[in-house]
Amino acid sequence: MDFAQLFSIALGAILVNNFIFSQFLGICPFMGVSKKIDTALGMGMAVIFVMGVASAVCWPINQLLLSLDLKFMQTVTFILVIASLVQFVEMFLQKAMPSLYQALGVYLPLITTNCAVLGVVLQNTQNSYNFIESVVYGVTGGVGFLLAIVLFASVRERLEFSECPKSFEGFPIALVTAGLLALAFLGFSGLSVF
Amino acid sequence: MDMTVIYALLVLGVLGGVFGLILAFASKAFAVEKDPREEAIAEVLPGANCGGCGYPGCAGYAAAVAAGKAATNCCAAGGDAVTAKISEIMGVKAEAGVKMIAQVQCTGGCRGHEKYEYAGIADCSAASRLPGGGPAGCSFGCLGFGTCEKVCPFDAIHVVDGVAKVDEDKCKACKKCIDACPRHIILLAPYKTKRHVAITCSSKDKGVVVRQVCDNGCIGCSLCAKACPKEAITVEKNLAVIDYDKCVGCGICAQKCPRKLITVDGKVPEVKPAAPKAAPAAAGAAKAE
């Protein structure tokens, strides 16, 4: 196992190719659940969890699809897998870890339709990552999401108290802020381990 | 037929079937036994998650009631109707609560007497940390930046003309604004739907000081306390306070108040024979007495 390779994947997923700020995946929960830092943290944690598990589960299924020469079926199969996986995880958590379920509960079903999760799985196959690389990419992609949404939520909490032109109040100024944050993350684009 | 098509159909069909089965078993194996009453209670609650009952959200309150840890009449937002329904589900007798409202103890009479111009964050808690307790002329007065308005889940409190005003019909007494107000000038008052008398001032300053910074703040002259036939008003620390257990809503105090501060049903009654100057609170048609 090459740790430098894994580190490079992690760095890329968190900063350079941040799912939100440079790939623009998972924007709807990013805008929707970012009004408070607490909820943003909960959502971020849930995304890390689901992205990691989805990467792990989809890897063997992708191997099966490749062996049957069914590459064109990837997207539809992954959607099926992710949706059932989230449902299953929700039921399991409710029984086995009620406290964790309480913390993530509301956000888990939301993630079912989060394109960042599908994105991470598809990118795993496009980059032909092996199992461990897939899981690392999934988890660190989630960490990148967490970083982005918490940063954004802290900015939005301050935005609440600032006076801005009437026509910009609410979502317009939030979108402008997201754009500026994305610009800031562009600064990481030159960063690489190798 | 091309084998790929068959494989594709097979893979998706089998995967779908397998996941369906797993989910079906999981829903049985991981089923959590819930008190059916808890769901029924959650159903009748308003679902506003205001936290006025003291539990985290409506689901939390439903669980507490079903577990027998909470009374059935804690939901201020739902009022008597919800209390009756919950009591029916729990099989106990409904105990009606008195309707409470949040009452802002300030008329905003200190507007125009500001100590300095404030251009900071538009938030009361930020402004109140400044020297002198914020820009408002009166050190007890409403700052008017609407921190209460932001926390209200029922759209029941609004800053009108620089002072917070409660919409009595919408207010559900969830106490969020009371906790949010850095000046602590919002209190919970029992609300009589007819003839609700209110002395909306919090100033404990001496009359001389109040006269300088406010158009109609309480100067502690005690005229209302002397006039009250039920002895419901007491003046402590230069401030008249109503004891709502004793108040019958006669409105005599409002007639006597030289500052036009006391309101009946939100209006300052017209004093016979001549009403010299209407206070801001009496912007609407003054109620004839």
For the residues shown, what is the average pLDDT of chain A?
A: 86
Number of helices of chain A: 9
Rg on CA atoms of chain B, Å: 27 Å
Biggest pleated sheet of chain A: none
Bin the strand percentage of chain A: under 5%
Q: Could you explain the architecture of this structure?
A:
The complex is a heterodimer of chains A (194) and B (289). Helices cover 73% and strands 0% of the residues of chain A. Chain A has helices at 3-16, 27-32, 37-67, 74-96, 98-104, 107-111, 115-126, 131-159, 171-185. Chain B has helices spanning 3-29, 36-44, 57-66, 79-90, 124-128, 147-151, 176-180, 207-213, 223-227, 252-256; strands at 100-104, 157-160, 163-166, 186-190, 197-199, 233-236, 239-242, 262-264. Chain B has three domains: 36-97, 3-methyladenine DNA Glycosylase II, Chain A, domain 3 (Orthogonal Bundle); 102-191, Alpha-Beta Plaits (2-Layer Sandwich); 192-271, 2-Layer Sandwich (Alpha-Beta Plaits). The radius of gyration of chain B is 27 Å and the shape is elongated. In chain B, helix 2 crosses helix 3 (57-66) and helix 2 (36-44) runs antiparallel to helix 4. Chain B has ten helices and eight strands. Chain B is an alpha+beta fold. The model of chain B is unreliable at 274-289 (pLDDT under 50).
